[in-house]
Amino acid sequence: MSFGFGVCREPSIELEGENNMSISVPPSNMHQHLHNVLQSGEGADISFKVKGETFPAHRIILASRSSVFRAELFGSMSESTASCIEIEDMEPQIFKALLQFIYTDMFPPSDDHTDEGVELDGDIMAQHLIVAADRYALDRLRLICEETLAKKINADNVVTTLALAAQHNCQQLKELCLDYISSSKILDSLIETDVFESFLVSCPSIYKQLLKKVASNRRT
């Protein structure tokens, strides 16, 4: 006796018109969950002491976000076995903001820039965070800070902003500062100042780049 098997398919039903059915999917709130983890300190396995303040953190999160932290916490450096690392050359507000970015991938809101009555405005915070971002190889944070400072470039701060950009590998910010300075009106006002002269003497490579910008502007 033999048996035969076949596949029966139900006739497909074609719906006329466009299918407008959809499911509402909320936006990702992972950053908020990680922010809560940072705030609570739950499961923390490392802490940082910054000028008297202690910040608990999680090695794996720091290492996954920063190659510098990965080397410090999981490499052959002495910090890899330490339970508490002391940082002496950074303000607590800046380190707190740095951790918040690492956990949430977001620039800290302005209301988080106050700590024990000491308030830092967005520009000052961005300047300090550029240094921290360069130190811990956080390129996205550095670029966010570059964007913040680029919007505030003026004749009063362009020299200090250029110096900061040149020192901490902020190529886009540096180019914008050079473009701003190379306009004849701004250059004429700055060239008489001691600060600008001292900066150019200390950074001959920037001086050469500025000369090229000026020459290019005159040709166009």
Automatic annotation (TrEMBL):
Pfam families: BACK_BPM_SPOP, BTB. PROSITE patterns: BTB. It comes from the Eukaryota. One of its GO terms (biological process) is protein ubiquitination. Pathway: Protein modification; protein ubiquitination. InterPro entries: BACK_BPM_SPOP, BPM1-6, BTB/POZ_dom, SKP1/BTB/POZ_sf. Residues 44-111 form the BTB domain. PANTHER family: BTB/POZ AND MATH DOMAIN-CONTAINING PROTEIN 1, OS07G0655300 PROTEIN. Belongs to the Tdpoz family. This is BTB/POZ and MATH domain-containing protein 2. It comes from Carex littledalei.
